[in-house]
Amino acid sequence: MAERRPRGRAPRRGTTPMTVAGRTLACTVSLAVLGASGFTWYEYRSLDDGMIKSKALDEAKRNAPAHLDKSVNLLLIGLDSRKDMDGNDLPKQFVEDELHAGSSEIGGYNTNALIVLHIPANGGKVSALSIPRDDYVQTVGADGKMHKIKEAYGIAKEAAEAKLAGKGLSKAELERQSREAGRSATIQTVQSFLNVPIDHFAEVNLIGFYDIAKAVEPIQVCLNHPVDDPIVSRTATHEGGGTGLKLPAGISSLDAAQALSFVRQRHHLTNGDLDRTHRQQAFISSVEYKLKQQGILNDFGQMQKLFGVIKKDVVIDNEWNILDFAQQAPNLTGGNVEFNTLPITGFKTVGGQEVNTVNPDLIKKITRQIFNHESAPAAPADPSAEATPAPASASAAAPTTAAPTKAAVDVNAAKGADVASAESKALVELGYQAGRIGDAPAKTRSTSVMYGTGAKADAQQLAARYGVTAVPSSGVAAGHIVLTLGASRGATAATPSATAGSGAPADPAADPAAGLPMQGPAVKAGGIPCVD
6 near 52, Cβ under 8 Å? Predict the structure, then answer.
């Protein structure tokens, strides 16, 4: 169980509006990793003392894949919760009136942000992988069934509460113990899905995000396009939608409430939740950049104030030694971090809920390459998305394994043939046949998908990746799809960071993600990255 009082929330399965961006776990990580600061051991101990510690890694480590080197994998968990760590409702004025996040009856224990940071043993670039929250996977440590990955926490917590019922535990103690089960299930599910061991984790919920954002506001973010996300009425049983966020294109300075809206908006975004994942990554980068630029990471007095906030809202594992970790990962505070989002293969409906379908073997392959584990043995087959038949009501709109019989895709890109070529290679990884590569007119702004006779199903699946509608065309050959990548977006299924912005070929030696099928462009730390 947690060694110091966590706080929590009643279980829930539905989609919630709260996506907490690794919830300034950016702050947790950036503030904890102080290798270049010159603080004394005593000062580090002063910061570490009083942190909420968890033993949730114990079971996960017993079942973890083997380590190939001395690198460190850190899981950042953004927990959707409108209750405190003792299970009490957060103030209505705060949740409903200030944050427009709905009542305490709506939220749950969904992990709406899951980001794995890979810190190389010998320094160098830190790679971060975001896992889309609706990925339909085999859970571990929960009930062992197929679920959205975000639900592993709540399912395990609910089961633990049932087992602990009648033991005379206080409400706060029941909350602590059952949340430990939720954390353990989440860690084990992520380990199995990626086939990598998790060495440390940090968890923060709604109030934690807000408190830390409040401590460092204003925070600058950058948007490629203006946003207007009007609030839609919510009830006690339905979350509604809309955050109330209205911002222009370019850089804006946000207060804590606006920051929360920025990372949880999903309506009025081309790719919904998938675009929101990039918001999370960009926000983490912006916070880290501010802390570094203002010298807060080298100011013990400022650090004490920030840690005073973090200590009451953030949970970390009990094996996390801040001093050792700081010496191991100075690049986390130097902007040398690149975020990528793991790809999905499409969407389907299971039990009345829309889920992301995935190719488990491809996910493991991507993870091995990005984490510089190319020499790792092939991952064993994972009984994930399609291994268990979906309920009869589930649609078969998007298979989860790559099949060589899919339609051929001709790719044209407004940003040049290099981008089109990278995208084509990524689609081949997903089972599509390679088609022609070409340029689209530079003035082409929007992405489109057109298809010929016999390619409708594959075209619809492909279009879902880009948030567009597949359109039949007599000008497209039978069995073919024509994908046109507009200049306003860049490649979506695979956007190696070197190609996405410049049109220059990516360098696999410098960028382990080069040529891999990712869900949208990479987000680089070290500044204020612009996102949708």
Answer: yes
Among residues 14, 132, 144, which one has the least CA distance to residue 78? Answer: 132
Q: Does any domain span residue 494?
A: yes
Whether residue 417 is found in the same domain as residue 303: no
How is residue 465 annotated by DSSP? H
Domain containing 516 equals 408-531
pLDDT at 17: 34
DSSP 8-state assignment for residue 83? B
Q: Which residues of 50-70 are buried (b: 16+ CB within 10 A; e: fewer)?
A: ebbbbebbebbbeebbeebee
Instruction: Report in angstroms the alpha-carbon separations of 288 from 30, 78, 281, 282.
Output: 6, 17, 11, 10
Among candidate residues 315, 341, 367, the one where a domain is terminated = 341
Length of the chain: 532
- What does the alpha-carbon distance between residue 138 and residue 383 come to, in Å, rounded to a whole number? 7
Number of domains making up the chain: 2
Quote the radius of gyration of the chain (alpha carbons, Å): 22
244 domain residue, yes or no: yes
The CA distance from 145 to 29, in Å, is 32
358's tokens = 């995935």
Kindly tell me if the per-residue pLDDT of 510 is higher than 60. Answer: no
Do 317 and 420 share a domain, yes or no? Answer: no
Query: For the whole model, what pTM was predicted?
Result: 0.68
Structure tokens at 274: 């998938």
Domain assignment present for 379: no
456/379 Cα distance (integer angstroms): 33
Instruction: Count CB-CB contacts under 10 A for residue 173.
Output: 16
Listed residue (338, 339, 287) closest to 125, CA to CA: 338
The amino acid sitting at 161 is E
**Domain CATH code at residue 73:** 3.40.630.190
Q: Is residue 329 part of a domain?
A: yes
Q: Which residues pair with 247 in a beta bridge?
A: 227
**Beta strand pairing status for 353-357 and 346-350?**
antiparallel
Cite the beta strand spans of 181-297 per DSSP E.
200-205, 219-223, 227-228, 246-247, 250-254
What letter represents residue 289's amino acid? Answer: Y
> 528: which residues sit within 8 A by CB, 6+ positions away?
220, 221, 222, 251, 282, 285, 286, 289
Query: What tokens were used for 86?
Result: 């003792």
Residue for token digits 């203006």?
A: 226
Last residue of some domain: 306, 341, 376?
341
**Helix and strand element counts for the chain (H, E):** 15, 22
What is the structure's pLDDT at 105? 56
Q: Which of 103-107, 181-185, 469-473, 507-511 has the lowest mean pLDDT?
A: 507-511
